[in-house]
Write a structure and sequence with these properties.
- There is one protein chain.
- The protein is of the alpha/beta class.
- The protein has two domains: 267 residues, 4-Layer Sandwich (Metallo-beta-lactamase, Chain A), CATH 3.60.15; 179 residues, Rossmann fold (3-Layer(aba) Sandwich).
- A seven-stranded mixed beta sheet has the order 6-5-4-3-2-1-22. A seven-stranded mixed beta sheet has the order 7-8-9-10-11-20-21, covered by helices on one side. Strands 14-13-15-12-16-19 form a six-stranded parallel beta sheet, sandwiched between helices.
- A hairpin with a 7-residue loop joins β8 and β9.
- α4 runs antiparallel to α5 and α4 runs antiparallel to α8.
């Protein structure tokens, strides 16, 4: 039997920076190659190098904490294939270039305002690095087996998380089968098909982001969303929604379109203030093969899920700046979801101290990020090196998360308890992962582990 090992260079006992190295008799491949997201200084240092140069990369989906370090890898000399679904490649075309632009722009902005004697900040990578990375993509449709290396094949299975997202089934000649969930989506979630069932595998590498939490039902979230918008109209305030440009933004626009169609929410303009979101939305429009039946019905009835008349995409920087002077009420959807970069930081710098405004969080924020500090209602926060008082109303909606929650994960992983084999929990905070591991053991899952960062684990067939 071949010598097979697992080593996690990211998203082990933490949520971001997914990088899991599988080595088979000396041939290595990464499952994902994402950016670590956290405190700015720590993020810059951890993201300057991947830590390993593999022979191949298999990418589960396009979110930056799963794909964002690919240009760093290519800059450091990687020339192997990056295996992905066609929709993931199309999203990465926009996302990696955007990430490079944000890094370059933030570096310029901060360097202009650096104090005397402070070292110049260099971007993690450039747009040229991102462009060169795209040349390495090799795409494969769902459920089509492809070769990763000698005696190693993989198959993408629909993960139902974002457009093109996939779980990865790895088959090794005379060795163990491995299933990497990537980020697991939710059943009956809008736009996308449900996740494919857990396949039979000797080793499961599963995310556990929400392993200790349950999401609100989407229909209950609609009431909360309506209340936020009604208050904005009453106060003539602005509603800032930090949202990932891929997946969350499109789901929110679709949700707002359905509510507007039913006359359930006030009529007020919505600005999608993100060049990336505009490009990502085009990718959504280009891949109807990923849509679920509900969206297909909405389209057949004449609905415009991504381009309703009251939504404006503000691609130009001048349009974004003008929103700071525009009087409310209106809604701004802008990246990033954790408020660690992008245009949302500028809106927060100008609008966070106004009590008439609302900041509505619709997703999880990692510890030590600006988003988490605002959610914790710290009285003051640092935004683009400026101290800003938090006087705006802070609200959270958990229903729009595209991750499976505790119940969803338990249901998806249930077949493992009967089949046996090893189960590794990644992509979750340490406390969450350890607690969820104990929950799984109580439910009959035998070999459940929470890998340590950089530790090497042998992978074998079930006995």
């Amino acid at each position: 039997m071949p010598d097979v090992t697992l080593q996690s260079f990211g998203a082990a006992r933490t949520v971001t920076g997914s990088r899991h190295l599988i080595t088979v008799d000396g041939f290595s491949f990464l499952l994902d190659c994402g950016l670590f997201q956290g405190p700015r200084r720590e993020s810059r240092e951890r993201n300057r190098h991947v830590g390993v140069v593999p022979d191949a990369v298999v990418l589960s989906h396009a979110h930056i904490d799963h794909s964002g370090a690919l240009p760093t890898l290519a800059r450091d000399g990687y020339r192997g294939p990056i295996h992905a679904t066609p929709a993931t490649r199309d999203l990465c075309r926009a996302m990696l270039a955007d990430c490079a632009r944000i890094n370059e722009g933030d570096a310029r902005y901060l360097n202009k305002r650096r104090e005397a004697g402070e070292r110049l900040i260099e971007p993690i990578y450039t747009e040229e690095d991102a462009e060169n990375t795209l040349k390495l993509f090799d795409t494969h449709a769902y459920d089509k087996r492809f070769q990763v290396g000698p005696g190693i094949h993989a198959t993408f299975r629909d993960a139902g998380h974002i457009l093109g997202s996939a779980g990865v089934l790895v088959e090794i000649d005379d060795g163990p089968t491995i299933y990497f969930t990537g980020d697991l989506g939710r059943r009956t979630y809008p736009i996308l098909r449900d996740p494919a069932p857990l396949p039979d595998a000797d080793v499961i590498l599963s995310e556990c982001t929400y392993g200790q939490r349950e999401h609100e039902p989407v229909d209950l979230a609609e009431d909360k969303l309506r209340a936020v918008l009604e208050r904005a109209v009453e106060r003539r305030g602005k509603v800032f929604i930090p949202a990932f440009s891929v997946g969350r933004t499109q789901n929110l626009i679709y949700a707002l379109a359905q509510l507007r169609k039913r006359g359930a929410i006030p009529e007020l303009p919505v600005f999608v203030d993100s060049p990336l979101a505009e490009k990502a939305t085009r990718a959504f429009a280009d891949h109807p093969e990923c849509y679920d039946a509900e969206l297909q019905d909405f389209l057949s009835e004449g609905g415009r899920p991504f381009y309703p008349s009251w939504v404006r995409y503000t691609a130009k920087r001048q349009e974004s700046i003008a929103l700071n002077e525009r009087r409310g009420p209106f809604v701004v959807l802008a990246g990033s979801g954790m408020c660690e970069g992008g245009r949302i930081t500028h809106h927060l710098k100008h609008g966070l101290s106004d009590p008439d405004n609302t900041v509505l969080f619709v997703g999880w924020c990692a510890p030590n990020t600006l988003g988490r500090r605002i959610i914790e209602r710290q009285p003051e926060v640092r935004v683009l090196r400026r101290t800003v008082r938090v006087r705006a109303e802070i609200r959270t909606l958990r229903a729009y998360s595209a991750h499976a929650d505790r119940s969803g994960l338990l249901e998806f992983l249930a077949p493992h308890a009967e089949r046996g084999g090893s189960l590794f929990l990644v992509h979750g905070d340490e406390d969450t992962a350890l607690a969820f591991a104990e929950t799984l053991r109580e439910r009959g899952h035998g070999d459940v582990r929470v890998p340590e960062p950089y530790a090497r684990y042998p992978l074998t067939k079930r006995s």
